[in-house]
Specification:
- Helix 4 packs across helix 6 and helix 7 packs antiparallel against helix 12.
- With about 425 residues, the protein is of the alpha/beta class.
- The chain has 19 helices and eight strands.
């Protein structure tokens, strides 16, 4: 993770800077030198092998003609469309960097004082941002961390679909049998409640079966002699339900299909998490990360999937910045609101760290002490979410140092002497 001075020094008179505006089908590319002077004309190429070959040939031709020894290619991370071109250029040993889309949006008015947007103009803006050192290096892992990244993204996708299915099921239940939650606290969990949703999810169907019929359905899922109390409660609740009584046949079919989809997604999640466990083992970091109370296989694998190899960073602070946890001042004129996290980073990584922090506060004694101190300290006590951000940053530091030293978690080393004295004085 290089600072801007280092980036500027990398752009020398022998460097050709290439700006590419990425789209689904047609890309535009423009070229500038280290002073930002444009070289040649804008070129349009297609998002396919022949298009990639043509642009690479153009880059090599300009380098030969103008005497450039180095090439740096900048682009915006537009959806997933940038990845094939970036991978193609990296294979040819070209340096590829990323430009923040918000920077492009702000900078493109500087030349012509016009907010006009077009792909041809954006390509030149991107090239000049790179020439000015306003870029960051692209990281495209090709090892076990690439596997973990794909698994993490796949799990996130399946989790989103599962949540959508659960929300739809809840909406159906709320419409037809809202009182079901008084019988089953979590209707979408548990073998008994799922069996009821499959066979007799609505009051009219429950009353039609009666207590004995409902009991038979319950025993299809739970092989026990008990269940009469739950069956009786279900029938009594159905008698006073305010749920709608139309479209029951179709609504039941809808629930059946949703349950099938939910069960499929649950099986897929199990398969993904088993693969994450195996991939985590291959990294060689599994034992040291899982030695931390509150960090499990899924969170550890997801963390590495988002971050990649932690040892490519010089310090844990750089990982915090990658997550968007770096502090920025939030003030204007006389209004002093203090500092807030920038959130200019990987949102998925922040979500993973937030879940990790919650778990660590719950089961990790040292982290719980730190968390409680942050919320109750005499000077500048933090709110719950603010304290969790500090815990998340602490988790990054712990993981980074454990991996660097290849040592397991030691509770006595988590809090330094200075922090221990602060906590002791506040007690």
């Amino acid at each position: 993770m290089r600072n801007r001075n280092y980036k500027l020094e990398a752009i020398t008179p022998s460097t050709l800077v290439v700006g590419v505006d990425i789209a689904k089908e047609i890309q535009w590319v423009r070229f500038v030198n280290y002073r930002g002077l444009e070289i040649g004309k804008a070129i349009k190429f297609y998002n396919n092998k022949s298009g990639f070959d043509s642009i690479l040939a153009s880059i090599k031709s300009i380098c030969k003609e103008k005497g450039f020894d180095n090439v740096i290619v900048g682009m915006e991370p537009t959806g997933h469309y940038w990845k094939p071109l970036a991978n193609y250029l990296l294979i040819d040993e070209k340096e590829v960097v990323m430009v923040n889309p918000s920077h492009t949006k702000r900078a493109k008015e500087l030349d012509d004082n016009s907010p006009t947007k077009n792909d041809k103009k954006d390509a030149l803006t991107i090239a000049k941002l790179v020439q000015d050192g306003r870029y960051y290096e692209v990281y495209m892992p090709h090892d076990i961390f690439a596997e973990l990244r794909v698994l993490t993204n796949t799990r996130n996708s399946v989790m989103r679909r599962r949540n959508a299915v659960k929300n739809t099921m809840t909406a159906v239940i709320d419409e037809y049998f809202p009182e079901l939650v008084t019988v089953f606290k979590e209707p979408l969990k548990g073998k008994t409640s799922i069996q009821i949703l499959k066979s007799c999810p609505f009051p009219a169907l429950i009353l039609e079966l009666g207590v004995e019929g409902v009991l038979i359905e319950i025993r299809k899922a739970v092989k026990k002699t008990v269940g009469i109390k739950k069956a009786t409660q279900l029938v009594e609740t159905a008698k006073t339900s305010i749920g709608v009584n139309y479209g029951i046949t179709s609504a039941k079919l809808r629930l059946e299909l949703l349950i099938e989809e939910l069960e499929l997604l649950n099986r897929q999640l199990t398969k993904i998490e088993e693969a994450m466990d195996l991939a985590l083992d291959v990294t060689g970091f599994k034992k040291v990360i899982l030695s931390v109370p509150g960090i499990g296989v899924v969170t550890a694998a997801s963390f590495l999937g988002e971050v990649g190899d932690p040892m490519r960073f010089e310090s844990p602070r750089q990982i915090s910045k990658m997550a968007g946890y770096n502090l920025i001042e939030d003030s204007s004129g006389k209004n002093k609101s203090g500092t807030v996290i920038s959130k200019r980073g990987r949102k998925n990584l922040r979500n993973i760290l937030y879940q990790m922090a919650l778990s660590m506060v719950s089961v990790n004694p040292e982290i719980r002490v730190l968390y409680n101190y942050l919320k109750t300290r005499p000077n500048n006590p933090l709110k719950k979410k603010q304290a969790l951000v500090v815990v998340a940053k602490k988790a990054i530091t712990i993981i980074y140092n454990l991996i660097k030293k290849q040592s397991e978690y030691k509770a006595e080393l988590v809090l330094g002497e200075f922090r221990k004295n602060q906590i002791k004085q506040a007690a």
